[in-house]
């Protein structure tokens, strides 16, 4: 009984420290536009329990639970510092400070964070317009509203849709507020019918009705030099997407689907450095391409890939029929919630647009299954060298925790996880370590991905890159060839 009492007391002590940390993290986000994490586990809009769990998560890297007594003093100091926009891993800072030994914490932090001290006024501000407000559009809105902070960086200004009846505004607001997969919106939603505005946590989202991307005058709403994120999928080539550039107030266009022709297909973390100021139209590729390309790059860099087949087990999407009916696509007319539906995927070929060294080395197919979100890619690879399950898993685990691809690649090794456990994950793909198969130079990897939220997170990273508003990540992460 004494041990139980001590354990309970210890938990309450940690909870008290976490409760003190909650408002400080809120101030950092709101006043400084600083996002914090514990070894990559984000501390955005978190509860005290979330913070305690994040500190326990650190055991995967440090082999011991991160102490709140070590991280809380860091957060206290950060609040008092003149920081600019940044993503700061307080778990890694705490570990580095401990390893350094005795010293002054404020001096240590000033040295570690010198790049972002006194840079608050340097963060650019860019207007964002969502053209379309479906599954991806509404998730993009949620992420943008949550990240708004002081209004620096990227700002959601408007959504453009076709009007569907007199209560269209109410319906749009309701769909943003409630989501059958991702749950309730974290905050408050209200509408201004007179001005056609949805208010989300104090952010005014102008709803513009139009069916012609070339005729909207965004400057009438105070919007200029905007990035338009087209998530309708109606146009996928340069000629179609150039229509947006004819509208007043538009500077650039980002497509949330694989681009055709000469469009650059960007997978953030892999080829985002290819983006230039002269690129006015870009594609964020597909959810599957984003899920598999980072993992394939990591494997190819370490072991070499001579050939591979990608089979995606993909949740059904809105372009399928709920019950059997006519559909212009093969097999997609059959009931989505009752069948596994074999279809093709361009993801394997699309990988080469972001990772040219794998051009011609991959094939792929897809099976649509009766789940609303979270998919899986099975990577069946022939490598240039032999390996083992332990070697591959250890390497990919390190990549997911320590490298520059940490936001793109996740790793889990749990015997109980199923697809719903990955709803809301922000990584592009998560390797299931228990499912890894390796025999000689043959490797099979199973990669989970939230084809809605994980992909939307990747899209936002590209938007921030276009706007030159990506937060500096501190402490700096390692390149994968350094692992």
Proportion of residues in helical segments? 25-40%
At CATH level 3, the topology of the largest domain is Dihydrodipicolinate Reductase, domain 2
Number of helices in the DSSP assignment: 13
Q: How far apart are the termini?
A: 45 Å
CATH class of the largest domain: Alpha Beta
Give the low-confidence spans. Answer: none
Range of strand content: 15-25%
Radius of gyration: 23 Å
- Strand order of the biggest β-sheet: 6-7-8-5-4-9-10-11
Main sheet properties: 8 strands, mixed
For the record, what is the CATH homologous superfamily label of the largest domain?
Dihydrodipicolinate Reductase, domain 2
Q: Count the domains.
A: 3
CATH hierarchy: architecture of the largest domain: 2-Layer Sandwich
Structural class: alpha/beta
Tally of strands: 20
The geometry reads as: globular
GO molecular function: NAD binding; oxidoreductase activity, acting on the aldehyde or oxo group of donors, NAD or NADP as acceptor
Keywords: Oxidoreductase
Family: Belongs to the glyceraldehyde-3-phosphate dehydrogenase family.
Protein name: Glyceraldehyde-3-phosphate dehydrogenase
């Amino acid at each position: 009984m004494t041990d139980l009492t001590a354990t309970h007391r210890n938990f309450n002590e940690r909870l008290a420290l976490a409760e003190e940390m909650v408002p400080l993290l809120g101030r950092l986000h709101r006043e400084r536009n600083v996002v914090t994490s514990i070894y990559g586990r984000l501390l955005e809009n978190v509860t005290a329990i979330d913070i305690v769990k994040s500190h326990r998560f650190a055991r995967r890297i440090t082999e011991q639970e991160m102490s709140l007594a070590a991280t809380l003093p860091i957060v206290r100091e950060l609040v008092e510092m003149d920081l600019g926009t940044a993503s700061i891993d307080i778990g890694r800072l705490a570990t580095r400070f401990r390893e350094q030994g005795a010293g002054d914490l404020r001096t240590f932090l000033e040295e570690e964070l010198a790049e972002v001290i006194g840079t608050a006024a340097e963060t650019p501000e860019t207007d964002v317009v969502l053209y379309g407000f479906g599954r991806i559009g509404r998730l993009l809105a949620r992420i943008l509203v949550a990240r708004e902070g002081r209004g620096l960086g990227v700002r959601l200004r408007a959504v453009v849709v076709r009007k569907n009846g007199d209560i269209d505004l109410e319906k749009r607001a309701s769909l943003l507020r409630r989501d059958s997969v991702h749950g309730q919106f974290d905050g408050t939603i209200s509408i201004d019918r007179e001005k056609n505005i949805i208010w989300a946590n104090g952010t005014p989202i102008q709803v513009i009705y139009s069916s012609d991307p070339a005729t909207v005058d965004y400057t009438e709403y105070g919007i200029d030099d905007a990035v338009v994120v087209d998530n309708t999928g109606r146009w996928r080539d340069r000629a179609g997407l150039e229509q947006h550039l004819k509208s007043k107030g538009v500077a650039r266009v980002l497509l949330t689907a694989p681009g055709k022709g000469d469009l650059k297909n960007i997978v953030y973390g892999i080829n985002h450095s290819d983006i230039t100021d002269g690129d006015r139209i870009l594609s964020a590729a597909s959810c599957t391409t984003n899920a598999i390309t980072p993992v394939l790059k990591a494997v190819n860099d370490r072991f070499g890939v001579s050939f591979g087949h990608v089979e995606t087990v993909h949740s059904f999407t809105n372009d399928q029929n709920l019950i059997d009916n006519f559909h212009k696509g093969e097999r997609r007319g059959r009931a989505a919630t009752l069948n596994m539906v074999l279809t093709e995927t361009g993801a394997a070929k699309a990988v080469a647009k972001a990772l040219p060294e794998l051009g011609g080395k991959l094939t792929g197919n897809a099976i649509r299954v009766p789940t609303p979100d979270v998919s899986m890619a099975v990577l069946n690879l022939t490598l240039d060298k032999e390996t083992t399950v332990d070697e591959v898993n250890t390497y990919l685990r390190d990549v997911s925790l320590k490298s520059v691809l940490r936001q793109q690649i996740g790793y889990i090794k749990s015997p109980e996880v199923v697809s719903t456990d990955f709803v809301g994950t922000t990584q592009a793909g998560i390797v299931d370590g228990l499912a890894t198969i390796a025999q000689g130079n043959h490797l099979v990897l199973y990669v989970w991905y939230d084809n809605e939220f994980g992909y939307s997170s990747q899209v936002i990273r590209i938007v921030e890159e276009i706007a030159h508003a990506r937060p500096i990540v501190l402490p700096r992460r390692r390149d994968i060839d350094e692992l």
